[in-house]
């Protein structure tokens, strides 16, 4: 059995999105705030992470920065896995405002992450997210302890929790 430590990234600097009017995946390029950096340094001291053999990371900046801090503190290699990316609120990659993101997120939540029967939505469904997360996790079942640095919505496909704080650690066994 493998123990995965799902570590949500530290607090990101979302203000950059509005300042630069970033669109689509450009909105995922924001770094951590200073508080976010401090959150990750604190998480790196958690006893559960000390036995990890590898760090897997989402390709998004906030996750990579989090993984880099953990890598430095825990002396572990980082493997970037594209399928650990966060929920895609707009599969056309056209959304460009916090208001649009909130509307798409609200629709996702109202439908519990599932498309209504006979309908499709712009957003990535929970089953789609779970399938890609499971695909990554299943590749690393030959390890005993693995850190996965990623995102709240994606982690919620593996573990039932309403809200995951920044730099929070969830133990997940498979």
TrEMBL record:
Membrane spanning residue stretches: none
CDD domains given in the database record: HP_PGM_like (cd07067)
SMART domains linked to this entry: PGAM
Entries under InterPro entries matching the protein: His_Pase_superF_clade-1, His_PPase_superfam, PGM_Phosphatase
PANTHER family: ADENOSYLCOBALAMIN_ALPHA-RIBAZOLE PHOSPHATASE (PTHR48100:SF59), BROAD-SPECIFICITY PHOSPHATASE YOR283W-RELATED (PTHR48100)
Protein name, UniProt field: Histidine phosphatase family protein
Species annotation: Paenibacillus puldeungensis
């Amino acid at each position: 059995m493998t123990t995965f430590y799902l570590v949500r990234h530290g607090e990101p600097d979302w203000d950059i999105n509005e300042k630069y009017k970033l669109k689509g995946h450009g909105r995922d390029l924001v770094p951590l705030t200073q508080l976010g950096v401090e959150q990750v340094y604190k998480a790196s001291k958690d006893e559960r992470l000390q036995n990890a053999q590898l760090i897997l990371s989402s390709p998004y900046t906030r996750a990579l920065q989090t993984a880099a801090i953990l890598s430095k503190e825990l002396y572990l290699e980082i493997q970037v896995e594209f399928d650990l990316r966060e929920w895609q609120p707009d599969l056309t990659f056209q959304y460009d405002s916090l208001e649009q993101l909130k509307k798409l997120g609200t629709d996702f939540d109202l439908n519990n992450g599932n498309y209504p029967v006979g309908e499709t939505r712009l957003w990535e469904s929970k089953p789609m997210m779970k399938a890609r997360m499971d695909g990554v996790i299943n590749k690393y079942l030959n390890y005993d302890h693995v850190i996965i640095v990623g995102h709240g919505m994606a982690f919620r496909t593996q573990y039932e929790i309403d809200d995951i704080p920044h730099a929070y650690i969830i133990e997940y066994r498979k």
